[in-house]
Amino acid sequence: MKNLEEPVRVVHAVVSKEMKIMFRYFGVLVMIASIPFMFGGMMMGIGYAIAGPSAFSNFTANTGVSNPLLYTVLGGVLMIGSMILVENTAGIIRDEQMMGTFELHYLTPNSTLMLWLFHSLSTSLITLVIMTVDVTVVLAWQGSLLSPVEWLLAATITVLGLLPLAGLGLVVAALTVRFKEVWAAASVVNSFVAMLSGFYYPLEVFPRVVRFIAQFLPTSYAAQALRNIFSGGVSSLQLWEQVVAMTVLGFAYLVVGRAFYLRWENEAKRRGELSKY
Amino acid sequence: MKRKGGESFQNTKFTTGVRTGLLELKAAAETGVRIYFRYPAWLIADIITTPAWLVLLVLPILLFLPREQWTNQETLTMLFWGWIFWDIVSAGLWNFGNAVRREQQTGTLEFLLLTNTNRAILFSRDIFSRFISITLSLAYVYFFFTTIFGVQALILNPFGVAASLLVGLFVSMGFGLVYGALVLRFKNVGPLNNILQFILLGLGGAFFPVTSLPEYLRLVSYALPHTYAADLLRHYGMGTETLLPLPQEWAIMLAYTFTLLVLGIKALETVEKKLKRSGQLGTY
């Protein structure tokens, strides 16, 4: 019982600390929640200005979805969630180093790996809140509401799709923490995750080789699955198949991330480099 | 020395004259460029990520067109120039505020404000590195755009393009100075600037001529300086018709640029003065 109680306490501590920090900067939170609308709105506006009145019917013909607002907002929520998650996980060690609090974590009896992963969990929870608010706004504006079953499904898919990216964040952190430019590396990862996940377009627009690579991103399944739930997008996979793919990929990402991180940490401890930056 | 209520701002004798101004500009430029080249990973990351961001921006817009028009040269060139203009607008909007915020966070703001340097020049250092990054990005964005979308974006009049980009940058710097003043006063106002950026890009017709907007929005567009900067850019880049006769558009642009820069500098000055008077300069 005690074995289970301790990690739960650590999760509680990390998540409440992160939530306090995030809600301290409420304006930033509002901005993050509004980015899917701003970015989606900009795309729809440009699309309409260029294509004219047939813009939305063209969109339906190209995507199989008749609701571009919901489509772009869902994509935007996942994109912003994935970016924050990779950036936070990759940057948390560097942040702690810069504040001079990194070494203090080694004085606690907790696993540092778990500490960083729990930070990612907080980011996923924030994304869930943003997804709930943004999707509810769009649905309410169009005269419907999110049912509890839909929300539960969407929440599960969002967490399953995003949390594995913490593994990528750990790889970036482990590879770059000594070279100080963690955020530049995280930006590279983010740009390709965003492009290959199909947040704003169906992956069918890409050549076969790009689609093949996209299969290895959990976020590409999450984007498809969320669209299927809310806006009736067309997908070649059943929902359960997408969930299985995300679970398998999630496991693989976290195992790889853990291996990279522990290798860096052990090496740094051995050479006395943990506090050398 | 007669003290005026302990208000240090009134005792500050700001530098004047062309030579001192140029020296200050030189110092700001050196600092900005040194910082830029100290982090080469960012430059490399910018180049590597450009194709991904291009696809991410352009493809969703093309979804609103019939598939046979996805390779339309005019549309793609318009999106190319829109992309470049976005870079320019964001450079002008964010630089001053970011510089002020960085100095606040590193605890060096108060020391800088003890100097008699022109405040606008003091916080303009990133603009100089952005000149380098924007010039570089123009080259690699063009390369990637041509490679990915298979069309060569038009650059009919390079000097006209450079002039309209420059004036677009300066007019954005006017807004940027006001943002810098707000950061000095309220610290964390990034969200506001972000919203402003999307408004300026959307209603200023960065990616399309504002004539395709509904009439009630067009009225707002005509009041924005960015509308004319983007219009001039498309004119010199692609040969499109301008909204107003050319001399008139340039006159409007220059008047806007001058007014906004003066207002921005004044805003920065007023906020500094008020903060010094109320003792809030170092509160953040």
Write the H/E string of chain A, N to C.
HHHHHHHHHHH
The overall average pLDDT of chain A, rounded, is 87
- The structural domain count of chain A equals 1
Distance between the termini of chain A: 39 Å
Radius of gyration of chain A: 20 Å
Protein architecture, described:
Chain A is mostly helical. The radius of gyration of chain A is 20 Å and the shape is globular. Chain A is 78% helix and 0% strand. Chain A has one domain. Chain B has one domain. In chain B, helix 4 packs antiparallel against helix 9 (190-203), helix 8 (158-186) runs parallel beside helix 12 (246-278) and helix 11 (225-238) packs across helix 12. In chain B, 76% of the residues lie in helices and 0% in strands. Chain B has 284 residues and is mainly alpha-helical. The longest helix of chain B has 34 residues, at 73-106. Chain B is globular, with a radius of gyration of 21 Å. Chain B has helices at 8-11, 18-38, 40-62, 73-106, 109-113, 119-122, 125-149, 158-186, 190-203, 215-223, 225-238, 246-278.
What is the fold's blueprint, element by element?
The complex is a heterodimer of chains A (277) and B (284).
Chain A: H1 2-24, H2 26-51, H3 55-63, H4 68-99, H5 112-141, H6 148-162, H7 165-176, H8 182-196, H9 208-214, H10 218-231, H11 239-271
Helix pairs in contact in A: 1-5, 2-4, 2-5, 4-5, 4-7, 4-8, 4-10, 5-6, 6-10, 7-8, 7-11, 10-11
Chain B: H1 8-11, H2 18-38, H3 40-62, H4 73-106, H5 109-113, H6 119-122, H7 125-149, H8 158-186, H9 190-203, H10 215-223, H11 225-238, H12 246-278
Helix pairs in contact in B: 2-7, 3-7, 4-7, 4-8, 4-9, 4-11, 8-11, 8-12, 11-12
